[in-house]
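for the recovery benchmark. tokens below, seq after
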């Protein structure tokens, strides 16, 4: 049978691999055994040395890159990542999984885009790995892993309530009898067999349950467990120092995810037609209140943080940071005549932040997209359109005083907040400092200045 941890790196087997074989000090050391496994993976592309992971750190980064590329790249070549489906890699793959979890937990909010990508990538890896197994091996490993995950004899639906609450699973996906989930063929036939006179109950079982429902439950449970694992590490790291290698991996993951996502549509639930890319906004210059909002707001104030605070800040920061020094009224199209910056940079960032919220803003309040359009000055419409400009007013950014009054949980002042009365002033000043220190590219500043 296949290795359990190849599908579930959080299993006892996976935890033992990490305990016995993980060595944080060697994360970025060349690993000849790993390279050998990769090079000898069936159908692996070997002509391009850049795609071959040479260290466990590379493997961790490529694990996430694989998912972003697979999801977004129309010319994706599966052979570039064939090693991810070679079971010989299981030990390194399991260690890479745990290291990614630690690195992301140390750097990002559990609701962040980065953590979501990791959790989703695990779900897709499980799906793809199962698909590549022979039918009998596939059902054998699914049964084995489910028997480890489903620890109740009589499986009440409430056992899966977290999956249902987070919409990973729907109650409609399940077959229930008196609140109990039916997965077993004999049990299904015993409970419902008499109800089917014109079709074989066995056939109905295969359609309603079969391997597909078991695999769906297994997949979503491991995704949920990965999410919970990151939350747990995140809490623990409040009292424990992060290992320098994990910090280094977090830096590289952040850089790689940002680069790879920027190559493709950066908001993966687009508001309008076409793809939208996050562009020249300098995130490093965001004040704490804005950085926290972009990471996702999970308590009260979520809607105001996205619709009032972030929408006005991002739009003015990108298009007209000097608003408070100017006298006349200005419209978005005075600066962004065809709305390409709004569509490609401003809305993607706002939508990304909305998606990072708990619960994601548009999932329970899709109408807030209209309020965002309205605050940009384009009336009560789903997407900004030049024809509607002027129907509402382009809302100016909130002052620090207002933020501290209405959204106090977001104001986590740092030393740069001194003598600042508006997040926009913070941003302009910080961007200027970063530019002088050579920490942001000159071309970025030149482009901004030319606009
Ligand atoms: S002082 Fe102003 S800029 Fe700084 S975090 Fe608070 S609200 Fe934001």
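predicted aa per position
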């Amino acid at each position: 049978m296949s290795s359990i941890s190849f599908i579930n790196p959080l299993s006892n087997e996976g935890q033992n691999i990490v305990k016995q074989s993980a060595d944080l000090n060697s994360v970025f050391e060349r690993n000849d055994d790993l390279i050998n496994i990769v090079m000898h993976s069936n159908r692996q592309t070997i002509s391009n040395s850049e795609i071959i992971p040479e260290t466990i750190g590379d493997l961790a980064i490529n694990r996430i890159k694989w998912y972003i590329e697979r999801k977004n790249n129309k010319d994706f070549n599966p052979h570039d990542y064939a090693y991810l489906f070679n079971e010989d890699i299981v030990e390194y793959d399991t260690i890479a999984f745990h290291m990614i979890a630690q690195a992301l937990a140390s750097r990002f909010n559990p609701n962040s885009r980065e953590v979501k990508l990791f959790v989703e990538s695990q779900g897709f890896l499980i799906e793809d790995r199962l698909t590549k197994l022979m039918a009998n091996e596939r059902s054998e490993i699914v049964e084995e892993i489910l028997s480890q995950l489903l620890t109740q004899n009589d499986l009440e639906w409430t056992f899966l309530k977290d999956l249902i609450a987070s919409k990973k699973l729907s109650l409609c996906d399940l077959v229930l009898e008196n609140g109990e989930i039916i997965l077993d063929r004999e049990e299904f036939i015993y409970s419902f067999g008499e109800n089917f006179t014109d079709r074989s109950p066995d056939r109905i079982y295969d359609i309603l349950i079969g391997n597909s429902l078991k695999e769906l439950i297994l997949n979503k449970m491991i995704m949920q467990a990965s999410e919970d694992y990151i939350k747990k590490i995140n809490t623990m790291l409040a009292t424990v120092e992060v290992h320098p290698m994990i910090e280094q991996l977090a830096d590289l993951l952040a850089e790689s995810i940002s680069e790879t996502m920027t190559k493709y549509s950066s908001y993966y639930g687009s508001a309008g037609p076409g793809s939208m890319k996050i562009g020249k906004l300098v995130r490093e210059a965001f004040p704490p209140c804005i950085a926290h909002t972009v990471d996702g707001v999970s308590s009260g104030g979520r809607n105001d943080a996205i619709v009032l605070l972030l929408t006005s800040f991002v739009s003015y920061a990108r298009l007209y940071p000097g608003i408070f020094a100017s006298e006349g009224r200005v419209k978005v199209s005075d600066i962004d005549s065809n709305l390409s910056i709004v569509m490609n940079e401003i809305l993607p960032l706002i939508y990304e932040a909305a998606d990072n919220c708990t619960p994601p803003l548009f999932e329970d309040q899709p109408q807030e997209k209209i309020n965002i359009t309205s605050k940009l000055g384009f009336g009560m419409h789903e997407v900004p359109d030049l024809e509607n400009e002027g129907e509402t007013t382009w809302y100016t950014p909130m002052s620090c005083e207002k933020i501290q009054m209405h959204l106090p949980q977001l104001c986590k002042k740092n030393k740069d907040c001194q003598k600042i009365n508006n997040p926009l002033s913070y941003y302009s000043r910080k961007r200027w400092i970063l530019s002088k220190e050579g920490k942001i590219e000159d071309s970025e500043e030149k482009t901004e200045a030319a606009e």
